[in-house]
Amino acid sequence: IRPALHSFHPELPNQTIWGYDGQMPGPTFVERYGVPITVRIYNDLPPSAVGFGSPEFSTHLHNAHSASESDGYPGDYYSATQFGPTLTHAGGYKDHHYPNWYAGYDDPRYHSTGGDPREALGTLWYHDHRLDFTAPNVYRGLAGFYLLFDDIDSGNERDFGNPKALRLPSGVGQFDIPLVFQDIVVDASGYVSFDQFATNGILGNKFCVNGKVQPYFKVQRRKYRFRMLDASISRFYEFYLVDGNGVNQPFDYIANDGNLLPAPLRNMKKVHLAPAERGDIVIDFSKFPLYTRLYLVNRLVHLDGRGPEDATVNI
What we know:
Elements: E1 2-6, E2 15-19, E3 29-32, E4 37-42, E5 59-62, E6 93-98, E7 123-128, H1 134-139, E8 143-149, E9 176-186, E10 192-193, E11 206-209, E12 212-213, E13 223-230, E14 237-242, E15 251-256, E16 259-268, E17 271-273, E18 278-284, E19 295-298
Parallel strand pairs: 3-8, 9-13
Antiparallel strand pairs: 1-2, 4-6, 5-7, 7-8, 9-10, 9-11, 11-12, 13-18, 14-17, 14-19, 15-16, 15-18
């Protein structure tokens, strides 16, 4: 983890974020069940860092079945000079072992499959978990996707030799697109700010997707998978896909919080996400004429950091 200059929008000044590999969001992990990995996470943040957040951190792989020493416990924060109450000494890095197991791996019924395949989680995310500073550290950039594949969600849309494979749109970053949604507070000078003492929650005045304010994405006339993550501090979202006239367009809802649904929900018109919640959808762009412009809009009224209103509106 290191500081880096980041551009949220061409009309805003470049500013310092904290990022895994200096990126916002962090690098996307693409892994498989049954193939364990070890990740060494360095803390290259200056101990004299100023502004909101803490330069000591603890990385948590959200929802994964990891041993406690690799799970990013809130007290396991560290730097070269400081360490949390659940560690024994300071250090410049920490190793995390991710076995990439299904739940139930120690159940004799599932020894041959390495756990219960029904418990597979495909869309996970990692983020800072530091005691008392999780919110500002995630807000400052410490979050990213961790994707897991298996025989069913195989990550290969041309997996014709595998009768279990769903052959969902594949190619992470090409037709399988992770999307991190965050709202940020931009002050009058164009810089991102955070009030550490706003205990009623933080609501931003700008909306970001993968660290960019209101970006666009060119697609081909085919199916795409979008993995949607609400990484905002307080904001809930209710997303709709609309055309230029504001008419809702249908899509397939295939997974929630990492779990594939028992069957896809066809012709859905909205996705409701709470902070840290994920939703996977498939959109077939072949149904639209060439050069059609579509918009992903949030219609959930959210005026107070404590929770959304019981109404929707275009935002």
